[in-house]
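Handoff note, outgoing to incoming analyst
You'll be picking up this chain. Sequence as last confirmed:
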Amino acid sequence: MSTAQTGPRLAAVLRSSERVTPLELFFDLVFVLAITQCTALMATEADWHGLGQGLLVLGVLWWSWVGYAWLTSVVDPEEGIVRLTMFAAMGALLICALCVPEAFDDSALVFACAYGGVRAAQVALLIVAGRDDPPLRHSAIGLAISTAIGAGLLVAASFTDGALQGALWALALALDMGGPLVIDASGWRLSPSHFAERHGLIVIIALGESIVAIGVGAERIEVDLGVALAALLGVATAAALWWLYFDVVALVAERRLTNAAPGLAQNRIARDSYSYLHFVMVAGIVLLALGLKKTLEHVEDPLKIVPAVALLGGTGIYLLAHVAFRWRNVHRFSGQRLVAALVLAALVPAALELPALATLALVVAVLTSLIAYERPRFAALRDRLRHQLASEPAAGPS
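Most recent structure output, in case you need it:
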């Protein structure tokens, strides 16, 4: 990574540090609201239609955030014009978040225009950063094309409704997220440790939304023993998801990314493992948050089909993303996490009959059993990653 720091004060300055900056954390606070709004959108009706809309909006907003994760892995966000542009992008992303509840209705056009502004600022800064880096500039121009098409489709969707509107949203998301698959990936630049840490922090933000959902679900009801138990089980679920990611998996993935050959190989790992598979993880956590919210509202009653699928299926999707994540990084198959995901899916019929509190207890039982099974098997690797290799510089390409 170039460390050149000269040039006009308003020019984009290339990143020289691996640490996540305070401005990036500040930027992520807006994404917290966006995630909360997606959960609220899905919870309004809690039907398949609302679930689909919420996931489409989440996908679009995720891709906005991912764009800035790549951008700030190239340029220093706290120097020059990048700082001012980040503030402007925060404003546009905030407007997107505020529009989420009506993103398919009255606020559709405002959402689409604000989203276009968020993405345009990112692409423009990448082009500026690549002024002396032809491969990066070439990749940024390719991204500009796919982004313009995606934003244009969202604008077109704002003038439609029903199935056509949903189809245009799905097409916009597919083209926008699919762009990096056809754009030459060798031109991108990134700081691997920074990139991995940034995505780890966004997982924490998503898990924080599941905690917020517990509070929202309990705000209009009396906090009795059942609600208190459900809240504790909800926190235990979030803690288990945190454990399953951060105890070993995140460390292995970061080291794999850091040790990959810079350029095409490293960029493809970053794209697949972080930009794509972390979206699946975050989507699973958001679905879990929906299930937690509905559980807290009616702890003694069985969940309806959509909240049951969200609670159990969302947790299962999170685990399936881990299976793919491990395979992509180290080409090893996590059979136990696949089995746990399948068990959770098999519990959906039971969730329609059992009290919601009992269903949540089953989720915690599955996750804690998985952790108990993996703990001794990962002990040596965990010790090596956390203690023996923690102070060592990254090795060469593995």
